[in-house]
UniProtKB/TrEMBL annotation, chain A:
<comment type="similarity">
    <text>Belongs to the PhoU family.</text>
</comment>
<protein>
    <recommendedName>
        <fullName>Phosphate-specific transport system accessory protein PhoU</fullName>
    </recommendedName>
</protein>
<dbReference type="Pfam" id="PF01895">
    <property type="entry name" value="PhoU"/>
</dbReference>
<dbReference type="GO" id="GO:0045936">
    <property type="term" value="P:negative regulation of phosphate metabolic process"/>
</dbReference>
<comment type="function">
    <text>Plays a role in the regulation of phosphate uptake.</text>
</comment>
<dbReference type="GO" id="GO:0005737">
    <property type="term" value="C:cytoplasm"/>
</dbReference>
<dbReference type="GO" id="GO:0006817">
    <property type="term" value="P:phosphate ion transport"/>
</dbReference>
<keyword id="KW-0813">Transport</keyword>
<keyword id="KW-0592">Phosphate transport</keyword>
<dbReference type="InterPro" id="IPR028366">
    <property type="entry name" value="PhoU"/>
</dbReference>
<dbReference type="GO" id="GO:0030643">
    <property type="term" value="P:intracellular phosphate ion homeostasis"/>
</dbReference>
<comment type="subunit">
    <text>Homodimer.</text>
</comment>
<dbReference type="InterPro" id="IPR038078">
    <property type="entry name" value="PhoU-like_sf"/>
</dbReference>
<feature type="domain" description="PhoU">
    <location>
        <begin position="118"/>
        <end position="208"/>
    </location>
</feature>
<keyword id="KW-0963">Cytoplasm</keyword>
<dbReference type="InterPro" id="IPR026022">
    <property type="entry name" value="PhoU_dom"/>
</dbReference>
<feature type="domain" description="PhoU">
    <location>
        <begin position="18"/>
        <end position="102"/>
    </location>
</feature>
Amino acid sequence: MPRHDYQRQLERLRGNVLDMSELVVERLELALDALETGDEEVIERVVSGDDEINQLYLDLEQDCVDILALQQPVAGDLRFIAASFKIITDLERIADLATNLAGYARRIDVDPDAIAGLRSIGETTIEMVEAAMSAYARDDADTTYDVADRDDAVDERCEQASERIVRDLLERSAADTTEAILDEVSIHLLAIRDLERVGDHAVNIAARTLYMVESDDELIY
Amino acid sequence: MATDGDKLITTDVQTSSTGRIERPDETVVASQQLDVYYGDEQALDDVSMEIPENKVTAIIGPSGCGKSTFLRCVNRMNDQIDACRIEGGLRFHGKDVYDDDVDPVALRRKIGMVFQKPNPFPKSIYDNVAYGLRVQGKADDVDLDDAVEEALRGAALWDEVKDQLDSSGLDLSGGQQQRLCIARAIATDPEVILMDEPTSALDPVAASKIEDLIADLVEEYTVLIVTHNMQQAARISDKTAVFLTGGELVEFDNTNKIFENPEHDRVEDYITGKFG
């Protein structure tokens, strides 16, 4: 096959994007652990590790620009670069959300009853990210639809969890000051919102992958 | 505007009130199941394609795929090759250019050509451009000075040569010579300009001037260009035809479709450099 170096550059980029996604998922799992345990060491690992993700993002962005400028990809190769360029942005944002989640653990003790719900939603969104990246790795269009389909359920669970957390915390914290209650409620709601956004980014990755594989923008919105 | 002298054939054809040949649609040149043979070797295989008016249509493909053969069929340049045999249809405004009553010389006035290597005549810049008008016998009917200036302006060369019109065309740079050839081609008021790798012998700056010029030319002309440079095809053309080995037209579509999402795997493999 001609253009060996070029083909190797494309495969290297795909491998590096997948490596970045594994790192991001690892940070997300640690963030859920941090919410549950409040372990400062785990929190610090997620928060301080964000610089590493940001650098990785910048490096991969430069790799995409270099390939565009020097190799002038077209057709499927062009869609692969365009999709990768967008996907690394979603991965970087997921890492930011993981940093947020870990940071919340510093501000409050997460309600023990709430943590089970947060972890359950968080694990579902992690599965969505992994499935979307698996589709990207294998040029698998079918899986991209599965990821998009799961997002509605995540949204619904986030809404239910928000209502429950507000109700439970208000009832249990009657003795606390209004300020303390508001702080605790808002942090819990922010955590739910961030997890819901992780799901949205997983859908974005799936949408860009579908475009990459089949030039179909159906999931891009 | 067309005149009697512009007619391709000796018999009457349908003309509009303005004297131009009627155009049922926007297609200027259309091939229908076109086969071309050089002796026993088939160079084009069942090629059907409609070239739209006032657009740049690029033909790309590997060496020997028949793209230049197709180009040369359009204004019957292949007539000069004895072993060349053509079957199927090739129409210019609906009239088959290979009909017995078509005058190839008149056809080439309406379908001009620019070649890979600039080929100005060993004459002055002025005479290079005026040549076609004189051959057509139009020199007495038009203000030759005005016609030469208009053609040189149309080829984006006027400002560079207006003070040296008596100099030899051969003294110009390669890029200027190619634009002189384009001026010569448009001086006779063609409708279609065929270009066979017009920038392959030029440096990038001269090539980019030709590309800019092509973008301007389609305001008035239809351009059909053969190029080995796929990025050039992507940059300058509205439609792209991909010929592959065996003289087969594999895909013909809008250029962005070809370069973003071609229908055929063979086209994808070719344009991404996986073969060829």
